[in-house]
Automatic annotation (TrEMBL):
It comes from the Bacteria. The keyword Secreted does not apply. CDD domains: PBP2_LTTR_substrate (cd05466). SUPFAM superfamilies: Periplasmic binding protein-like II, Winged helix' DNA-binding domain. Belongs to the LysR transcriptional regulatory family. Residues 23-80 form the HTH lysR-type domain. This is LysR family transcriptional regulator. Keywords: DNA-binding, Transcription, Transcription regulation.
Amino acid sequence: MRNDPLEEPNDTLSKDLLRSRNLTLHKLHVFCTIAKFNSVTRAAEYLNIAQPAVTAHLRSLEKSLGVKLVRKAGRNIELTQAGRRTLAWAKETIQRSSDMFLDLADIKKGLIGRTRIASSMVAGTYKLSETIIAFKKEFPSARISVSMASPYLATESVLLGDCDFGITLVDHNRDTSRLEIELLWREPLYLVAAIESRLVGDVAHIDELGTLPLITPPKGQMARELIDEVLRAAGVVRTNSVLAFGHPEPILNAIRADVGAGFVFKSALPRDPEASGLRLVHTPDLEIAMPLFLVYDKKTVFSAPQIQLMDRIRQSFAEPA
C-alpha cells in the first residue's frame, strides 16, 4: 500500500528545498556585513555579536549553498566568485524583503503603498506624468517614483526588481523572455517647422525630405533609429541632421528658431502649436510611429493599488490626446 505523500521521508523532497531551509534573512545580513568590511572580526563588532557566531553563520551559509563564499587575503578576507554572485542575490533578497515589510505596514495603516516605475523620457515627461499626478491627487497616500531611463536600462530595472514595472520602448538586444509586454499605444511623430519658416511649406514630399535640414535626436537613440529607418524605406538615403538633442524641448526650441524642421512626438507638442510658434507639416509619403509598452516581470504579484494604477495608465494611453 502506497504511503500518503505528506508522510514520505524528507529524502523525497528536492535538495534545493532542503538547502533553502537554512537560508535565513539574518544569515544573509551577516554575510553582507562580512563582505562590507572584508573581515569577520569587524563584522562581529559592527553587529555587536560574538565572532564565533558570525563565523558559524558564514559556515552554515556556505554549507547550505555548497560553495566557498570567502577566502583569505592577507590579514583580511575577500569574496570568491561564488561569494560575489551570492552577495548580489543577498542584497536583492534583503531589499525586496524590506520593501515587502514596508508595504505590509502601509496596508495595516490603510495607505496605498509604494510603486516604482521606469519610463522612457518622452512618456515620463509628458503623458505618464499627467496620469501619475492625477492619481496622486485622488490617492494622496500613494507613494510613486518615476525614473527616466533608456529602453535597455528600463528593462534591466524591471528584471532586477529595482522597479515594479516600466513604460518604455522594447530593446530587442535584451533578453525579454521573463517579461510580460503589453502594447500601450503607437505614438506618432509629426514633422514640425517654425510657423513662418521658409525651409518647408505646409506639405513635404520625399524629394524635399532628403535635403530638408532636420533637428533630430542623437544617433543611438531609438527615436533617431526609427526616423532614419522610415526615411530610408521611403527612399531618403541619409537623414540631413544639422543639430541633435536628446530631449524634445530643445528640439522644439531649435525648430522655433528656424534652425531646421524636426519630427516630434505627439505628446511633446504644445496643445496649440501655432500659438507656440510652431506649424505642423503634412507628410503624405510617410508615417512615423513609436510603439510604447507596459513591461513587468511575469512572476510579479502586484498589490491592488498597483493594479489600479496600471489600469489607469492603460486607460490614459488608450484615450486620444
